[in-house]
Specification:
single chain; D-Maltodextrin-Binding Protein, domain 2; four-stranded mixed β-sheet; 17 helices; 16 strands
Length: 430
C-alpha cells in the first residue's frame, strides 16, 4: 500500500482563524522560519481534519514531504495505512485544539520547547523508550525532551547558534567574542565591511540570538530543581548576572561601541553576511545553504564567550516526534516513534532532507566525517543550553526581547532589566 501525503492545511485567503486556534503564535523554536503555504482544507475552529488512516502524522511543510517515504515503509512493514498531513501554520495551537476534540493526529512533529505547554494541556503522552535506546542520542537532546522526569519526544535533530566568520577578514578562529568584535570593528573602520558582527536585534529585540551574550556575562533565565529541571520560581532576569549582561549589551549598543544595532534583525542578518557586508554572523545551521551559495569565503566555529567571563551557552532546540495523548491509535504511534523513527536509516534520511544536525550520535558522527560544518555544530552542541520547555517560558520571550532592544537603543540597562524581571515574575505568578 502507498502512504498518501495530504496537505490538510489551516484556513486560507479571506478566512480568519478563530481565537481559540490562534490566540498565540505557533510556538515554533526561535529559529524556525518556514513560510506558510496556500491551504486546501480545514476542519472546525481552524484545525485540519484528521484523515481515516490507521496512523496519522502532523508535520510542517518542511518536514512533511521528508517523512512520506519513511512512513510509507513503516506502513508496509506493519500492514497499516499511514497519512502524513502537512500543517503549514499554527501547528502547535491547531494540534492542541484538535487533540482536545479527539480529531487530531497520532503523532506530531515539532520543537521540544512545545513540550511544557503540550503536557500542561494534556496533549501528549510519554514515550516508551528504554535507557538503552536513549543512550544512542546526544544527552543534551534527551534532556531537552524530558519534562518532569519523563521523556515526551524522540529528538531527531538539534540546532543552536554558532559564529560564522568571513575568512577574508578573519582567517583564523577567534578565541573570544572580544577578539571577534575587535577584528570586525577594524574591518568596519577600514571600509571592508559595514557591520562587525551581524547579530539580530530589531525593533522588538531577540532573546534567542542574544542568549549567548547573556549567559557569558553570568545571566540565567531559570534555576533548576533537585531533579535538574527548570524551576519557574527561580527567575534569573533581574538578578546580578542579568544586570551585568545588560550593562555589556548597553556598552556594545548604539550608545556605546555601536557593535549591536536595532537595524540588524532576523530579516537581514544572514543577507548582511552573504552579501559580504559583515565580518561575522551569529546564526545556526539553517544559514548554511545561503552562506555556501553566496560564494563568501567562510568558516564556522563554536560561539565564544567574553574574555575572563563564563562560556557562552546558546540555546539548544531539539526537533522531535511526540505521541498525541488523545490520538485514535496510540499503539501505532508509540511503535512509529520508538522503532519506526528510532534507527540510523530513518535519521540519516531526515538529515539528508533537512540538513539539521542529527541527535542520534552514530549518525552525527558518520555525517560529520564528511561535513566539517555539521561537525562544528555537533561539537558546539555540547555547550548548548536546552531551551526551557516549561510553560513559564512563554512569559519570557516578549518582555526580555523588548528589554534587549531598549538597552541596545540606549535605555538604562540596570533599570530596564530590573523592571523586566518584575514584569516576568508577575506574569508567572512568582
Amino acid at each position: 500500500m502507498r502512504v498518501k501525503l495530504r496537505r490538510a492545511l489551516v484556513l486560507g485567503i479571506g478566512v480568519t482563524l478563530l481565537a481559540s486556534a490562534c490566540g498565540s503564535d505557533d510556538g515554533e523554536s526561535a529559529s524556525e522560519t518556514s513560510a506558510p503555504e496556500a491551504t486546501e482544507a480545514a476542519g472546525e475552529e481552524g484545525a485540519p481534519t484528521r484523515s481515516d488512516a490507521d496512523l496519522v502524522i502532523w508535520a510542517d511543510a518542511t518536514k512533511g514531504p521528508v517523512l512520506e517515504p519513511i512512513a510509507d515503509a513503516f506502513g508496509e512493514d506493519n500492514g497499516i495505512t499511514v497519512d502524513v498531513q502537512v500543517v503549514s501554520s499554527d501547528l502547535q495551537s491547531n494540534f492542541v485544539t484538535a487533540d482536545a476534540a479527539g480529531n487530531g493526529p497520532d503523532v506530531v512533529v515539532g520543537a521540544h520547547d512545545w513540550i511544557g505547554n503540550l503536557v500542561q494541556n494534556g496533549s501528549i503522552a510519554p514515550l516508551q523508550l528504554s535507557a538503552d535506546q536513549l543512550s544512542a542520542y546526544n544527552p543534551k537532546a534527551v534532556e531537552s525532551v524530558t519534562y518532569n522526569g519523563q521523556v515526551y519526544g524522540l529528538p531527531y535533530g538539534v540546532e543552536g547558534l554558532a559564529l560564522y566568520r568571513n575568512t577574508d577578514v578573519a582567517p583564523d578562529e577567534v578565541a573570544s567574542l572580544d577578539e571577534a568584535i575587535s577584528i570586525g570593528q577594524a574591518a568596519v573602520d577600514e571600509g571592508t565591511v559595514e557591520v562587525a558582527i551581524s547579530l539580530p536585534v530589531g525593533d522588538n529585540g531577540d532573546a534567542y540570538h542574544m542568549h549567548p551574550i547573556y549567559t557569558s556575562m553570568g545571566g540565567y533565565l531559570f534555576g533548576t530543581d533537585a531533579e535538574g529541571g527548570y524551576d519557574p520560581t527561580d527567575l534569573g532576569v533581574g538578578q546580578q548576572g542579568s544586570l551585568d549582561a545588560a550593562q555589556k549589551i548597553y556598552d556594545l549598543g548604539e550608545a556605546g561601541e555601536g557593535v549591536l544595532s536595532r537595524s540588524v534583525s532576523v530579516d537581514n542578518n544572514i543577507a548582511l553576511f552573504t552579501d559580504g557586508n559583515a565580518a561575522f554572523l551569529v546564526s545556526g545551521p539553517w544559514a548554511l545553504n545561503d552562506v555556501q551559495a553566496s560564494g563568501v569565503p567562510y568558516a564556522v566555529q563554536a560561539f565564544p564567550g567574553f574574555d575572563g567571563q563564563d562560556p557562552a551557552a546558546p540555546f539548544m532546540g531539539a526537533q522531535s516526534f511526540m505521541v498525541a495523548a488523545n490520538g485514535a491509535n496510540q499503539a501505532f504511534a508509540q511503535e512509529f516513534a520508538t522503532n519506526g523513527m528510532n534507527n540510523e536509516e530513518a535519521m540519516t534520511e531526515l538529515f539528508e532532507a533537512t540538513k539539521l544536525p542529527p541527535s542520534m550520535t552514530s549518525v552525527a558522527e558518520a555525517i560529520a566525517a564528511d561535513n566539517p560544518d555539521i561537525a562544528v555544530f555537533a561539537e558546539a552542541a555540547e555547550a548548548f543550553q536546552p531551551m526551557p520547555a516549561i510553560p513559564a517560558m512563554s512569559a519570557v520571550w516578549e518582555p526580555l526581547g523588548q528589554a534587549y532592544a531598549a538597552i541596545v537603543g540606549g535605555a538604562d540597562p540596570t533599570e530596564t532589566m530590573t523592571q523586566t524581571g518584575d514584569t516576568i515574575n508577575a506574569a508567572i505568578g512568582n
